[in-house]
Design goal:
The chain has helices at residues 10-29, 33-38, 41-70, 126-135, 144-151, 172-186, 189-192, 195-198, 214-239, 269-281, and strands at 71-72, 76-77, 90-94, 100-101, 107-108, 140-142, 160-161, 166-169, 247-250, 255-258, 263-267. The protein has a domain at 26-72. It is built from 10 helices and 11 strands.
Length: 290
């Protein structure tokens, strides 16, 4: 049976168009349901974002303040001598003197230091010269203003040296090198003498107040050695050098052995050493007050 169709009148067309337009208008003006759920979350979301950003900025600023207060390796720490901080230069330097092994297992040094600091001093007299040159003039006179800036206005007066006629100070680096040289000599008593003869620290007083007894000199020598060991230990731990040191396999040895000749980030030693020498007896030396 065929479906029957009839022609719409103009009134029917208008009614249909009105209904369609009304439905479209209602859909346009009706708020979407998802907006009712999201609108209340917007303020909380913004607050959360602001809180996270504030926390991030607070941590970043705190770290920046701490870094600024303590200083940096490349620019100088707050504990570094203020007048010499401008001399700091940083570069990568490969260490030398590390041992290696040939195919027969014999140890040798492929990259010795350009200057000799180890070996038999009886055979190589330049060893003592090089060590002495490292630390010669390590205690220099500094100005009153430098002393106050270094130790504080209330404390610096106690460091006046009557014999030198001023405030005496030196870089701890050179003090530590002196200690290392002292221990080096102690390893060769046949050449350098006993601990008492090597050490030149003040010997402890005996019951009679004398410092000339052999036992007191020996005790003073050992105390000086102990001080040097403690100084070097703390100096190394304080530096916190995190340079990774690998181990390398040597067939002649049959196992791995540490390879210490690797690049390190260092301050330029020569610049600081030249400054010390100049402040000791050069044009930059501070005149004593006698």
């Amino acid at each position: 049976m065929k479906p029957e169709y009839s022609q719409l009148t103009s009134r029917d067309d208008q009614d249909t168009l009105s209904e369609c337009s009304g439905e479209v208008q209602r859909r346009r003006t009706r708020p979407a349901c998802w907006k009712f759920f999201l609108y209340p979350l917007v303020p909380w979301t913004l607050c959360l974002i602001l809180a996270v950003l504030s926390l991030f900025l607070a941590v970043a600023l705190d770290r920046n303040v701490q870094t600024h207060a303590l200083g940096t390796f490349a620019k100088g720490y707050s504990t570094d001598f203020i007048t010499a901080r401008k001399l700091i230069r940083v570069a990568q330097t490969s260490f030398t003197g590390g041992p290696a092994f040939d195919d027969d297992g014999n140890m040798f040094v492929p990259h010795p230091s350009p200057k000799r600091f180890v070996g038999d001093p009886a055979v190589y007299p330049d060893i003592d010269y090089n060590w002495n040159n490292l630390t010669w003039g390590r205690y220099v006179l500094i100005t009153k203003d430098e002393a106050a800036a270094t130790w504080g206005d209330e404390n610096f007066a106690q460091y006046w040296d009557k014999q030198r006629g001023g405030y005496v100070s030196g870089f701890d680096m050179f003090h530590t090198l002196h200690c290392l040289n002292n221990l080096r000599k102690a390893l060769n008593p046949a050449y350098y003498g006993t601990v008492a003869e090597i050490g030149h620290g003040a010997s402890p007083k005996g019951h009679d107040g004398s410092r000339t007894r052999a036992r007191s000199e020996e005790e003073g020598g050992f105390l000086h050695q102990d001080h040097c060991i403690e100084q070097i230990r703390q100096y190394v731990m304080c530096s916190g050098d995190m340079t990774p040191i690998p181990t390398k396999y040597y067939p002649g040895l049959g196992r791995n052995y540490v390879e210490s000749d690797v690049p390190h980030t260092c301050r330029n030693f020569d610049l600081l050493h030249d400054w010390m020498v100049d402040r000791y007896d050069g044009a930059g030396a501070v005149k004593p007050v006698m």
